[in-house]
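User: Okay, second chain of the day. Same drill as before: sequence in, structure tokens out.
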Amino acid sequence: MNYLIGIDIGTSATKTVLFDESCTIIASSSQEYPLYQPQNGWAEQDPEDWYSAVLVTLKDVLQKAGVSGTDVKGIGLSGQMHGLVMLDEHNEVIRPSIIWCDQRTAAECAEITEKVGAKRLIEITANPALTGFTASKILWVRNHEPENYAKCRHILLPKDYIRFKLTGEYATEVSDASGMQLLDIPKRCWSEEVLEKLAIDKSLLARVYESPEVTGSITQKIADKTGLATTTIVVGGAGDNAAAAIGTGIVKDGRAFTTIGTSGVVFAHSSKVKIDPKGRVHTFCCAVPGCWHVMGVTQAAGLSLKWFRDNFCSDYKERAAVKKIDPYELMNEAVAKVPIGSNRLMYLPYLMGERTPHLNPECRGVFFGLSAMHTKEDLIRAVMEGVSYSLKDCNDILIEMGIEVSEMMACGGGGKSTIWRQMLADMYGCEVKTVAAQEGPALGVAILAGVGAGLFPTVEEACDRFVRTQEYCQPIPQNRAYYEKGQKLYQAIYHSLKDQYHELTKL
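Assistant: Same drill. Structure tokens below.
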């Protein structure tokens, strides 16, 4: 029997999943690690935590399944995008990784825009300069930590650092590289023009592959540590959302998904390059060779609910521990008893600034309408509705761009919640489906690994064979009518506070 492995290096944890050649889950393992916020708006992680988690989970899935490493034909890597990993001449990590949700680089974004030109930057990279992207992080280190920048010999993204540790190869692929703001999106290669204008040496960057291409094989050192074999190939893989698209079958025009992970994304496939001239949504190369995707991003989707759970729901966590279930199960049960609108309570999910549609690193989270009647459960539902309103903002822009969606899938941790899926169906006004397999990114990169290993002919054919839908939520007309009014108020609250957010940063 042949096997494939998908590794998803997320913000909260790394999850490794072993699949057979029919893409059936055989074993999975995950390991969490911390996120550090040394200052307000900053976010960092230690790349060695990712590597340790990968080693532990790789060894674990092979042992659980009793599978020989020689039977694992390919590995695909997925993970959080945009994070900056800098290596010195000895391949040692120079400083903690500045990750995707870090908001410290506003000045560097202005510098990029000035040097490249706002219009030209969007023409080449399909996006305006954004604080979350990697280029501004590179410039921040150069501007604020010149001694670290001087030592840098290699710049990698989070999953590509893991690739280096597994294979010894400096490589990336088009979907993840698209989020660095250094790639020519239409041409699917590094932009000589942007690199020259920003004075970034191209030799620091990894070689760019298409997502199903083979980038290397497991080293003997890793084989000894994990039980894998040196014959196991590692393909390009994909950024987390591009990987989730493969795992949910979003590989053809007319298909889209909403994911609620740490961040939230509305993602649509496109066989042509489509760019929002206002830069409110991202256009990236996707994991299907020769195609692209357009996506809107809300920074703190699942993160908002996790933040609330960890700070205010110790009772739910304690009861869940006794019952040996996930605390979110109990929270969902409680929210189901709260009426839509959370008893006139609203939440703006801007804990980490916001991308779509505001492009504002200064905005922050808000509960609006709190009264003495509100309960903890009202606040939980308000958090979920606020995240859904933000995702609706993303979806509205895709519609404005002429991207027609006939199928909307839901994935990520939040996508498992029937309550959350119903909110999305009510707000979008369309059917929202889930897939039978819940391992979207890991399944997606396992499929890419199967293509690279020659087990499957193409990405599209593999998705047609292995991705199956199961649950459906239909919009409820009266809920939709309420949420249409609610969204207008939700948007108005942000605009009323926009100037005050800026004043807050100066206190």
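The chain is about 40% helix and 20% strand.

User: Thanks, on to the next one.
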